[in-house]
Design goal:
This protein is an alpha+beta fold and about 375 residues long. It is built from 13 helices and nine strands. It folds into two domains: about 240 residues, 3-Layer(aba) Sandwich (Beta-lactamase), CATH 3.40.710; about 110 residues, 3-Layer(aba) Sandwich (Beta-lactamase), CATH 3.40.710.
């Protein structure tokens, strides 16, 4: 690593270390009073939420139980599976290489896989890193079961093997938005080529450690057979047959959705997004955040962020939801008002879990607006 990036990362780590010395927020009864009726309404095992500013967590609470049919309560320190909210973390990982001038958002994907240059159609030779991160590369959503059947080796080896299938042919016209997990699997394989290490190791070294996200890991949560973390539940509310690291999508899908962590550690990452997006000292230079948080003119999706306008946010709002079908989470950021919220549940499905987390997120937003003296919509 060159000296300039070393200084960038060391400087950011020092900043975050100072912030991490502050005491962690305790479970807040006002937030719990917002969350519990929503949890009951949608029959969820548990519901957790936090409000944070660019300085870190302000309030957080967790209600319900780790596993339906038991009386083991969730806590504010429990770990939650983020699903596709991992994508912006992978985009940030790419940003660390941009900061080192080892990668450009405008690089052609095929330049990293010259061995495939004669095998992919012309349209695939023109797609860029930025298009892939914005889901504008025209790629298929996921590998087929047939394609997955031929993957073998470590998750990194499987990602590299998957590249040929992913680039085989465009599923949609490049340039149009089509959300695809394959986009971020492809990015993960490129970053592994550049970094010489598995995506998981690169994430730890370049994102989790400098931001002091000590609880962050990969895959499902908890010790197998033990109710020591939120247990995964299907959309029906029935507990999954097992928990632990393997209670997740296949490990090769890591870059598009395998991170788990505590709410307070998630807030550290998102506070850094607020800081960097507002031009303050952060993990990476401000232009990296501008790229990650700004969609092209014809889209509302940037690099792992949905971008929209909300009156309660005072303008631009960033959001994303994630689910591995057995957990669900959502986050919202209001850069202009320098705060955000996260909500998590240990149940999958758009119907109950998706609606509940959205409703809870808005409840936490209204609560913070009132507490901070902003006008409440």
């Amino acid at each position: 690593m060159k000296r300039l990036p070393q200084l960038i990362f060391a400087w950011a780590a020092l900043i975050m270390a100072v912030g991490s010395s502050q005491s962690r927020a305790e479970s807040n009864p006002q937030l719990a009073a917002i969350l519990e009726p929503i949890r009951v309404k949608y029959h969820l095992p548990a519901l957790a939420g936090a409000v944070f500013t660019q300085d870190g967590v302000v309030e957080m609470a967790a209600v319900g139980v780790r596993k339906a049919g038991t009386d083991v309560p969730v806590t504010v320190d429990d770990l939650w599976h983020l699903g596709s909210d991992t994508k912006v973390m992978t985009a940030m990982l790419a940003g660390t290489f941009v900061a080192e001038k080892k990668l450009s958002w405008d690089d052609k994907i095929i330049s990293y896989f010259p061995e495939l240059a004669q095998k992919v159609p012309p349209a695939m030779k023109e797609i860029t890193i930025a298009q892939v991160l914005r889901h504008q590369a025209g790629l298929s959503e996921n590998l087929t079961l047939w394609q997955r059947a031929f993957l073998n080796g470590s998750p990194s080896q499987q990602r590299l093997q998957a590249v040929a299938d992913i680039l085989e042919a465009p599923a949609y016209p490049p340039g149009a938005f089509h959300y695809a997990n394959n986009d971020y699997i492809l990015i993960g394989a490129i970053l592994e080529k550049m970094g010489g290490k598995p995506w998981e190791d690169l994430m730890r070294e370049r994102i989790f450690v400098p931001l002091h996200m000590d609880s962050a890991g990969f895959g499902g949560t908890g010790t197998v057979g033990e109710i020591d973390q939120p247990w995964p539940h299907f959309a029906s509310g029935i507990p999954a047959p097992y928990n632990g690291p393997d209670a997740d999508n296949p490990a090769y899908m890591g870059p598009c959705g395998s991170v788990h962590l505590s709410m307070s550690d998630w807030a550290k990452f998102l506070a850094d997004q607020l800081q960097g997006g507002n031009g303050m000292p952060a993990l990476l230079p401000a232009p990296i955040y501008a790229a990650i948080q700004t969609p092209p003119a014809n889209s509302e999706y940037a690099f792992g962020w949905g971008v929209t306008q909300r009156s309660w946010a005072g303008g631009k709002a960033l959001n994303h939801a994630g689910s591995n079908t057995m957990n669900f989470c959502v986050c919202w950021l209001a850069p202009a008002r320098k705060f955000g919220v996260v909500v998590c549940t240990n149940q999958g499905g758009d119907d109950a879990a998706g609606k509940a987390t959205d409703e809870a997120a808005y409840g936490l937003i209204l609560h913070h607006l009132a507490e901070a003296g902003f006008a409440v919509p």
